[in-house]
Write a structure and sequence with these properties.
mainly alpha; 14 helices
């Protein structure tokens, strides 16, 4: 039960992360009172910039209290230099690469389409997690799970935004990025479950953050832009808030993966699109039409059905 609770709390942190990114990319009216946001345009270079600002805060923040969470953190990390630990080191570094990839794609998607819709597309990752778990971990989906996957895909299609004010290519790119971020995160969770056979979630998470920081730094150096006109103070405030929820969310979900497995953790976490949509509606008054609301409801219902699969199996046995 503890694993279910911490994964649910970690997923709730992702709701705040998505809304913060949306505000940084687009001007919004907070709580219907005051306008703010729109500090950067949603492009690849600025996605890497925001990711860098988040990670440059997360990495030292986590390092400052990591031994309180797991006293052997630094000893385990030093031990990864041994020859017999190289496979675990490789999987830990791969976790950072996948974290970098899914965050970059998610940032772009949130900047291009509604937060609730982008979140829905991202949280289709349990489908990919089930397939990757089957392929890499040997955990085959049941017939019940295949049925729920079809339901989730139908709901996802309904949740795709179609607007008259935005070009088809603009929306299409946001949709592709949203689904791509879910696919990358699914690979991250499956890789994490395999990694936790040989490493604790705390050092694994710190290595992932540090790797993502390095990759975002390199990406910024390659895609240099003119950042002299940016409003840095609110961007750093947003980066700090985002760092806190990102760190909390990943730690709790990685602990949950160790306790209940990647597929079950993904299933619980994917109930969060409706929470994100409600949070965005309450805080920044984002509008979602009835067809998209129905799509989000179908996705969330499908994920809830998926989370009950283990109970169905127990009753059948």
């Amino acid at each position: 039960m503890f694993g279910f609770i911490i994964v649910l709390l970690g997923s709730f942190c992702f709701c705040f992360q998505n809304v913060i990114v949306r505000i940084l990319f687009n001007e919004q009216i907070i709580l219907g009172i005051f306008p703010t946001g729109g500090f950067v345009i949603p492009n690849l270079q600025n996605s890497f910039l925001l990711m860098f600002m988040r990670m440059v805060l997360v990495v030292p923040l986590m390092a400052s209290f990591t031994t309180k969470l797991y006293p052997l953190t630094w000893e385990d990390i030093r031990g990864l230099g041994k020859n017999e630990a190289r496979p675990i080191l490789g999987r830990s570094l791969l976790g950072g690469v996948l974290m970098f990839l899914y965050l970059a794609l998610l940032y772009l998607s949130i900047g291009l389409i509604e937060t609730g819709i982008a979140s829905t597309l991202f949280f289709t990752y349990p489908i990919f997690t089930s397939l990757f778990s089957w392929r890499f971990l040997g955990i085959a989906p049941t017939k019940f799970r295949w049925m729920v996957m079809i339901v989730v895909l139908v709901g996802t299609f309904m949740a795709i935004p179609y607007t008259q004010t935005t070009s088809d290519s603009y929306n299409g790119i946001g949709v592709i990025f949203g689904i791509g971020s879910g696919l990358a995160y699914a690979l991250y969770t499956v890789n994490a479950q395999k990694s936790f056979e040989g490493i604790h979630p705390v050092p694994f998470t710190w290595i992932s953050f540090a790797t993502a920081l390095g990759l975002s730094t390199v990406s910024l150096l390659i895609l240099q832009g003119n950042n002299t006109d940016l409003n840095w103070i609110p961007m750093w405030v947003g980066g700090f808030l985002s760092a806190i929820v990102t760190l909390s969310g990943h730690l709790m979900i990685n602990y949950g993966i160790k306790l209940i497995g990647a597929t079950t953790a993904a299933t619980i976490g994917a109930t969060n699109p409706s929470l994100t949509a409600i949070l965005a509606w309450l805080t920044i008054q984002e509008s979602i039409n009835s067809w998209q609301i129905l799509g989000i409801f179908i996705v969330t219902s499908g994920i809830l059905l998926l989370s009950q699969e283990h109970r169905v199996v127990v009753k059948q046995e």
